[in-house]
Fold each of these.
Amino acid sequence: MKKLILFLSWSIIANSVSAQNETNLKGLETLAKQGDLAAQIELANAYRKGIGVIQDYKTAVKWFTLAAEQGNSDAQYNLGIMHSFGLGVAPNYQPAVKWYTLAAEQGNALAQYNLGRLYYLGKGVPENLVYARVWAKLASSNGFEMGIELTELLTELMNESQIEKARRLEKECVIKQYKSC
């Protein structure tokens, strides 16, 4: 009898929490549709991770896109990831480069690192060790430690004139606050 009562209590609590989550989700969607940036990001992350909803990358892309178009660097970075790996969209490095660049120009170290990798690999952009090193170095300067490793690898692959050109561009990028690098 105690087990049955405990089960019924748990079932009532679970249904109450589920109804509350559904209400919260609808409220969040309403705000997101009205252009609320925080709501768009929260919904995008919920769908990307499957938190409180069934994981749905395509819906995550929809909400990240709306947030990214408002200039949010985290949403732009996440769209770069989703396009790079084909999560909710067909894999395509060209839009990934676009979104990484927008986020990188705002100082997003993860986007800077990934942009450096794409230049190194020639994915979505022509292979360019100079630009790869610029973005990797900027990422490491902004606290992303893997940027150090990529910078070192690239430095080993480059000649002196390429390294010097990269150093000049890095300084210019910092002065221009990463715009048009």
Amino acid sequence: MEFFIRQNSELPILKMQVVKDGRTNANKVFDRDLDTATIRFSMKNELNGIPKILMNNAYLTEKTQMNPDSPIEYYIYYKWGSRDTNTKGRFVGEFHIVNSMGELIVPIQENLYINIV
């Protein structure tokens, strides 16, 4: 996933949908534990691996349902601070979700690239 933000900007907010695979009953437990989970965001320079952001607070929100029969959708997001985007470059970001089931690092299947331009 590619995300673009201007240098020294705090908008747009970085947001990712929490996708459940639907293969196990663990999703029901995961839903209950999301409310009490600790969510952090980290970002490191792609070229040299030096961290720019290390385990800053990230947050969870639930999508407003237009249809009461549709499944609940969750998003994790990070609100940029003024120092987060002061350096141009390409960075690799990840969210850490810690709950009673353990730690999950998101995204799982592909890298999250943050491009500060």
Amino acid sequence: MIAPVQIHKRLVIYVQGYDPRGLAEYYRMFRREFRRTCELYGLTGKVGSPQNDPKRFTTAWDVTTNGDGWQVETRYLFLRWEDIIRQDFARPVWWKIVQMYRTWGGLTLLNGVVWRMLKAHWRFGLFSLYPIVLLTAWLLLGAFVGTLCMKLVTSLGAPALVANIVGTVTGLGAFASMLWLTEPQTYLLYLCDDGVSTYQFAHRQRPDWEARMEVFAGYVVDAVRDSKADEAIIVGHSSGSFLAVDVLDRALTRDPQLGSHGPRVRLLTVGANLPIIGFHPEANWFRNRLRRLAVAPDIDWVDYQSRHDIMNFWPFDPVVGHGIVLEDDERRNPLVVSVSFRDLWKPGNFGFRRWRFFRAHFQFLMANERLGAAYDYYLICCGPLDLLTRAMKPQEAIAAMAAKTGPDRDRTTAG
């Protein structure tokens, strides 16, 4: 068991996932949720203004957190690529639909990825089928409306050509209406772009993604080398998890001694969905990255998972689950930690929030509502003890807060 490490300075490098909202949303969320964490634990803190470098696709801000007898200075470096994501979103709707069927309805089913997902975590497997099922339902609804209108026009004595035109137009209109009107609730077009783009990346068909991740790898090496931090944490949430794995492995290729000099380097994956890349037979390149990180002598990797988030894999071993065979004395990573959202949310909020799948998925990046939980993103980023202590000795990490708050001081937030 490792000894706790007191942290005074920390470097956090956040690898953005597939989210077009980008910097503005994530900075607002960080500032808001950090404030709530401070209120919950009786801490004081300040989040500095974002320092944007558009030519380098990075934004950074400084955070100072003060507790009873301790202070931590955090440098938060946000690695951005929403410009590429927004280009994906600009693709024609018809292209998204055709490619959705090609990837999820055709090739993905044929190469066994969906079946492997269902076997590894049936809830995520069902969620992965949700977009193609819903898209098919909207198409069938449109066809039904179009056929109904065509028959109605025909019964009124209109020529067949007119009836066919009316049926086609009304059918397409019904489909388009359902698609657009329900998008804020279903995220269907977003999931089309996400699914198709992820498939392309798994098959190494996204040179724009790879070029940006290679640039990010250089930034990681430079940031760690130039930092005077006690700890450097590379963070990946959701699809950012497999990108963080990719970036860190590329960084290790650039600097094989990364983590053996300067701050200790940690990889933190939360709400991860690594198998959406790693389960593709063609993604041996990614499984090799997982293998190298599993045995990396100077890198510590912690993977937090939750059964209450259907958009991550739980329970799942990122090494064994990908069929990677290692000797017991050879493997170092990752340390897999299970999180219960019951410990994070007020009891009255749990039953409702767990069914808001996207809200639950983002809990990994949001403030807790209850004191004393083993997982707390803002204390990982800004608290006085290192990541491994929080993961392996959570009660000791909580005690180190030394906050003057009782066990019943829970915070209630808007649902």
Amino acid sequence: KGGIGRWRKRDIDYKLWRDTVFQRDKYLCQMPNCDKVERYLEAHHIKTYNKYPNLRLEVLNGITLCKKCHGKTFKKEEQFEALFNEMIRLKNLI
């Protein structure tokens, strides 16, 4: 007991969310002007994970960034929000 089943389900849901974001972005960092040499990818929550729990597993709230570019967004998430949302909006039109 102890809630393990609930946490495991959440982990599976998170992994599915992350994989879906990566697939949509073709496993490439989406930051403009990224040199794309970083090999480690991370799924970034456009609206922060802590402030918007209802959007945690929303694919439209995620974007693929390399570790280096993800670090550039730390504590500056709101500065990148409009850019990332527009990028995703344009992907959905194609």
